[in-house]
Amino acid sequence: MINPFEDPDALYLVLVNNEGQYSLWPAAIAVPDGWVTAYDRNSRSNCLKYVEEHWTDMRPKSLIEADRG
What we know:
This protein is 28% helix and 30% strand. The chain contains 2 helices and 3 strands. The termini are far apart.
């Protein structure tokens, strides 16, 4: 049985939390508390591309804001 987080043929979501951190999430599994959908059902490769294009700073939002001043 394939792990649902590693299935190359499954549909995925891209989730984001309040710290601006992204997660690739299997569409068949309920979105956990504290996360919202940033990019709806799509292929694993398209979701990874979305994350690469949108998550340009890996630091949590609170750390980014603290560094600003």
